[in-house]
Amino acid sequence: MTQDERVADRQAAEEMPWGEVTPDAARRLLVAAVEAFAERGYHATTTRDIAGRAGMSPAALYIHYKTKEELLLRISRIGHEKALEILRHAADGEGDAADRLAEAVRSFVRWHAGHHTTARVVQYELDSLGAEHRPQIVELRRRSDAAVREIIESGVRSGEFDVPDVPGTTLAVLSLCIDVARWFNTEGRRTPDEVGALYADLVLRMVGAEPRPAVAQK
Amino acid sequence: MTQDERVADRQAAEEMPWGEVTPDAARRLLVAAVEAFAERGYHATTTRDIAGRAGMSPAALYIHYKTKEELLLRISRIGHEKALEILRHAADGEGDAADRLAEAVRSFVRWHAGHHTTARVVQYELDSLGAEHRPQIVELRRRSDAAVREIIESGVRSGEFDVPDVPGTTLAVLSLCIDVARWFNTEGRRTPDEVGALYADLVLRMVGAEPRPAVAQK
């Protein structure tokens, strides 16, 4: 796979987060579950509601998912895996620490703005997952956190950044981007790209780097 | 009322947001509703659940609240009024723009960390309010936004701040503080005061001001 193909692949994945879910019926059920959880909350949603939204019978649902929690776990895992993929891609990318941090913020914001319904379910229903499933999600979050911390630490080492509290600043950067999912639909008069550019600038200020123009899209 | 009494009053209000709700039974029901909504979501909670948590009968609940939505509206209004009060107090306070912005962030973060359960209900169940009730909450949010924007604008005018996008930066500052309610309980190894101090420093960087030590508590 060439670099261009990898970029195209990543952009497609960013646009269609459920592409990996097969067969088609399983994917339709997942999309229906995201909508139902976002509208009514996990606990107020029944598997019957989800099957109905997908135009299927409850019996057909059970072929693909044994429980409602299995649906939430699948949604949560895919959402967190995409988040990690986006942040890892930025951390492993070209350029200096400021380029990589700006790219992490831009793409992470774009994802939370563009997929705010999914992101809300993924972020706000975490406590609805049972204790046996939560550790795998917590581990994905730990790795997302590590990707951002790694960029900030490298900027501190190179002298590009001035950050007195690296773990606290890492937390704040991720938190700022994640909250886009809450307000984006209701108050936003900006495109996901515009919010991404604004936030990248604000985050570079938070780490004491010079703001810079957006890197041209490859 | 002296200045000291006003400060004491405000601190008491920050600690006990439901103090204004009387009689006692109405307050107990409100606290029970916050817990139930936070745990299971608004739509999965019945008035029977809420009455049960408060140790009362459903009939006793209807003396105080005609509908479940009336409870959510009351919670949401009180929460948003406290947020506005905190931000107005900072905007109208002493000191230069950086002092006032730092105080706004510190006290707003402290509220979201210290009352994260209430704050989650207030922030994440907004869409559960009917169309006839939402405008009063939207108006409170508009005024909270205006309080922060006012501080930032005054810092830009005085030359203390360098902010190319005032509305966008205002939104980001509020958003950063609000998201504290999401992560505070689960990942926080810091006290509300510590998060407030860290965030005040990060926000001063966002607006291009010099960081400064915390203002001594009066």
TrEMBL record, chains A, B:
InterPro entries: Homeodomain-like_sf (IPR009057), HTH-type_TetR-like_transc_reg (IPR050109), HTH_TetR (IPR001647), KstR2_TetR_C (IPR041490), Tet_transcr_reg_TetR-rel_C_sf (IPR036271). Pfam families: TetR_C_24, TetR_N. The keyword Zinc-finger does not apply. Gene3D superfamilies: Tetracycline Repressor, domain 2. The keyword Chloroplast does not apply. It comes from the Bacteria. Residues 23-83 form the HTH tetR-type domain. Keywords: DNA-binding. Residues 46-65 bind DNA. PROSITE patterns: HTH_TETR_2 (PS50977). This is TetR/AcrR family transcriptional regulator. It comes from Streptomyces beihaiensis. The lineage of its organism: Bacteria, Bacillati, Actinomycetota, Actinomycetes, Kitasatosporales.
